Amino acid sequence: MKETIRNVIILVAAAVGVHVLYVQFIRPRADEVIEAARRVGQSVPREWFVILKDWEQEICIVLMIYCVIQILMKLREISKEQYLFNVDLLENVENSLEHDTLSELESLPEEVGRTHLVETLKASLRRYIITSDVQNTSDAIQTSIEALSMKLEAENSMIRYIIWAIPSIGFIGTVRGIGQALSEADKALAGDISDMTASLGIAFNSTFVALLVSIALMLLLHSLQRAQDRRLVDIQVYCEEFLLKRISQWNTLDEKSSATAG
After folding, report:
1. Confidence (pTM)
2. How confident is the model at residue 67 (pLDDT cuts 50, 70, 90)?
C-alpha cells in the first residue's frame, strides 16, 4: 500500500511540475514564435519548444519522468544493498547453525532483514533446519532466486507497459494532426497552406518526441534489468560460498565425529 501511494505521489508531482513548465514557459514561447512566423509569412521554425508544445508530448514527458524516477529508485536500492556481499553474515555458522544463526539473521534491522540476500539466506537455513540435507538447501536457494526473479519482473511490468504506451500516445497525436490537416484541405486548395502545415507539424512532432522518449527509457530499463540479473547471480554465489560450502564442511566433520565415536 505504501508503495502504491508513493507511486501515485510521484506521478502527480511529475504531472504538476511538467504542466507548470508548459503553462509558464513552453506554450507561451511556442505561441510567440508561431505568431511571429505567421506575421511575416514564413514557416514555423523547428525550435524545441515548438516541437514540445502539444499535450501528447506533455503526457510523454510526464510518463518519462515517472519511469526515470522509478528506475533510479530501483537502481539506488540495488546499490544500497551492495555492501552486504562484502560482509560475512554467517560467520558463526560452524558453531551454531541450526537456530542461533537463523535467530541472528531474523534479529537484523528491518532495512537489512528485508533485503533479497538476507531473505534468501533465511529461507535456505529454514529448509536446512527442517531437512538437514545439503541438496534440499541448495534447491531452496535456487527456488528463492527464481521467485525473486519473478518478483522483480512483476515490479518492472508497469515501467514496461508505460514504455510500450508512450509511442501509442505519439501515434494519437499523429492521427489528431492528420485529421486536422485534412479538415484544412479547402484552405490549402485556395492557396493558404499554413494551417495544414501546422496540423501536420502536430502529427510529426508528437511521434518524434514519443519515439525519442521510448528509446531513452528502453535503454534505462535494460540497464536496470542487467543490474537486477547481476544481483541474482551475486546472491547465488554468496549463498554457495558462505552457506552451502560451510554446511557441507560442517556435515563432513559431523559424520567423521560420528564414525570416530562409533
Report:
1. 0.84
2. very high
